[in-house]
Write a structure and sequence with these properties.
single chain, alpha/beta, Urease, subunit C, domain 1, TIM Barrel, 2 domains, 8-stranded mixed β-sheet, 4-stranded parallel β-sheet, 16 strands, binds zinc ion
């Protein structure tokens, strides 16, 4: 609710509760956030900032304010393939359904609309930053800037030609071109996205590692998605994928490497990840739906590995709801090792915020609500039956809050969701177009 519309500072948010997710997990009650030029400039008791007049003033006494959620791994445009193939193992799902559908449908129009659909869903469920690994990243970059979302685009690298390019050399060159084109953007960041150990051979991996060093770009790769991937690699090369990638130089403290999935890990692999500051991106719902395996989050956390959280694409999740992903992460961690103390609610919230920022190399900008950080902020309405009464706020957020309770989402200080409604996207038109795409894909007629 906007109470005033006079000019002074840009935005003042008076909040019932603020979870800062700083190092001490500081929780503030009856505090206000002051935002100027997209940056948090003050966090103070509300009674002490009554003199500050803001052009936009939000009074949210029944809400908890948290840092914008960071979806650290996904394939946004696959929102258009949501639910196209279900209840199948990864290799059949990928080879017999997803790859043929992508071969037929993926072009810049598909990517543009799919990304917009995904961004709308993410914003409404509290995600302000997402990492994306998909074809035509320049189209996703443009859409992210139009919509106003923050993104890391892990540009795809594979051994074979796709609609986006002829092969690894061109993919690497295009990634560097995009890096140059978006270097001054405050929302769009480029990274290398080698798809997986089984789709990228040694030479391209060596090349992209050296380009990543030279240009200080992160690398995000699916690694150890399944036990089968590990077994096949051992059969074919005599080496587990992590050993091969390690010999190629992918795990190194001087690189920002983000390894997605990471099931079937040995103790020595976990200590290698810790020693090399490699981040793990955990995608529990996708892993469970495809029966891929379990990422040993408790062991990784105990070893000091930074674990972030991602939904993966909507084709294998089938939604992009990070609140739901946190809940699944907490439950699966406990069920997997038979220990109810594993992966606390607080740790899950860190995974979805500050750990995601660390994984993407953006922790100086986002991931917590602190003065001088960018105003990527989410308000969750706790005045609902399923969040009353409240004894333990982090537990409420992880175990019993729904995405529909997200009422406001700001990115860079700009309000993109207001009282549950997208401010910059016509949701009815978006839904109409999504239905039309669905009918076209279902009919098989391009
Ligand atoms: Zn993925």
């Amino acid at each position: 609710m906007i109470l005033h519309n006079t000019a002074q500072v840009n935005t003042r948010i008076d909040a019932g509760t603020i979870l800062t997710i700083d190092d001490n997990f500081t929780t503030l009650t009856d505090h206000s956030l002051i935002i100027e030029n997209g940056v948090i400039t003050q966090i103070s008791p509300t009674e002490s900032v009554q003199h500050i007049i803001a052009s936009e003033h939000y009074c949210l006494p029944n809400h908890v304010i948290i840092p914008g959620l960071i979806n650290a791994h996904g394939h946004a445009s696959m929102a258009l393939l949501r639910g196209i193939a279900n209840d199948l193992p990864l290799n059949i799902w990928l080879q017999e359904h997803i790859w043929p559908a992508e071969g037929k449908w993926v072009d810049s129009d598909f990517v543009s609309f799919g990304a917009k659909l995904a961004m709308a869903e993410m914003l409404k469920s509290g995600t302000t930053t997402f990492s994306d690994m998909y074809f035509f990243p320049e189209v996703v970059a443009q859409m992210a800037q139009t919509v106003g979302m923050r993104t890391q685009l892990a540009c795809p690298i594979l051994d074979f030609p796709t609609a986006w390019g002829s092969g690894p050399d061109e993919y690497i060159e295009k990634t560097l071109e995009l890096h140059r084109a978006f270097e001054s953007s405050d929302l769009v960041h480029m990274a290398f996205g080698p798809h997986a150990p089984y789709t990228v051979s040694d030479d391209p991996i060596r090349s992209l590692i050296s380009a990543a060093r030279e240009h200080s770009l992160p690398i995000q790769m699916h690694v150890h998605e399944t036990q089968k991937e590990v077994n096949d690699a051992v059969t074919n090369s005599g080496k587990r994928p992590i050993k091969r990638l390690s010999e190629l130089g992918l795990f190194d403290p001087d690189l920002n490497t983000q390894a997605v999935h990471m099931t079937a890990l040995t103790e020595s692999e976990i200590s290698l990840l810790a020693k090399t500051n490699t981040s793990v991106i955990h995608c529990p719902e996708s892993n469970m739906k495809l029966a891929s395996g379990f990422c040993p989050t408790q062991a990784l956390s105990a070893a000091g590995v930074n674990i972030a959280l991602g939904t993966d694409g909507a084709a294998s999740n089938n939604d992009l709801d990070m609140l739901g992903e946190m809940r699944t992460a907490a439950l699966i961690a406990k069920g997997y090792i038979g220990d109810a103390t594993a992966l606390s609610a607080k740790e899950c919230i860190r995974m979805a915020t500050i750990n995601g920022a660390k994984a993407l190399g953006l922790e100086q900008l986002i991931g917590s609500l602190e003065v001088c950080k960018q105003a990527d902020i989410v308000a969750i309405d706790l005045d609902h039956l399923n969040t009353l009464p409240s004894y333990d706020l982090p537990a409420d957020i992880v175990y019993n809050t729904n995405a529909s309770q997200v009422t406001h989402t700001w990115v860079n200080g700009k309000l993109l969701v207001d009282c549950g409604h997208l401010t910059g996207i016509d949701e009815d038109m978006l839904k109409d177009e999504a239905r039309q795409w669905g009918q076209k894909i279902k009919s098989g007629n391009k």
